[in-house]
Amino acid sequence: MPTDANVQRLLSMRARGAARRSRSLDLVRACGLHPADPIIDVSGARHTIVVPLLEAGYTDITVLDPSGFALADLAERLGNPGKHVTLLEQLVTGFHPRRRYALWCDEGFFHALQHPEERQQYLETLEEALRPGGHLVIATFGPEGPEECEGVPVRCYGPAALQHELGAHFELAEHSVAVRHAPSGEAYPYLHARFVRHAPAPLGPY
After folding, report:
1. Per-residue 3-state assignment (H helix, E strand, C coil) for 53-76
2. What CATH number does residue 162 fall under?
3. In total, how many domains does the chain have?
4. Each residue's pLDDT tens digit in the chain (206 positions)?
């Protein structure tokens, strides 16, 4: 039977997760999307913001996760999302989208990519999937964050460092840094940011 301390810890973790999702949803709202605009969430089934997106009225959401078990669990939690949610058993860095999206959401996947080749593959997929003028809403550990999270090594980014990683095709529109508490109780900065993908420059006259 759970102790009072464990119950309070669980409730606290849920509240912190809800707060992070709320900050990301605020950035999504700032994109000014139509409810039917296509959205892709690459955060993984455990960290996806698909539920608040559905509650906010968005009707075309794709969720990526390499684990079929995680996706099955998400599908069970969602109940009957019907045509509004597409679940794809796919790793982000090997994904080749068949369509383009107005918004790419990432709640902590990018900061787990340790190797430059992985990050390059991520960026190639991002540019393939996100339409010109589209938005990237991303959350990562901020400056002076942890070296690992739940046993997984992570990289930490400030807004300038993240802009450098994404390159000149993306422009930082807004960002905020909040405090996140790890399961151990330690507090770390967490960066939430929204970028806009530039449309390609028109070709000049020959």
Report:
1. HHHCCCCCEEEEECCHHHHHHHHH
2. 3.40.50.150
3. 1
4. 333 443 233 223 333 445 556 789 999 999 999 999 999 999 998 888 999 999 999 999 999 999 999 999 999 888 876 679 999 999 999 899 999 999 999 998 999 999 999 999 999 999 999 999 999 999 999 988 888 887 889 999 999 999 999 999 999 999 999 888 766 778 889 999 999 998 765 444 54
Instruction: Read off the pTM.
Output: 0.86
Q: Which domain holds residue 51?
A: 36-110+121-197
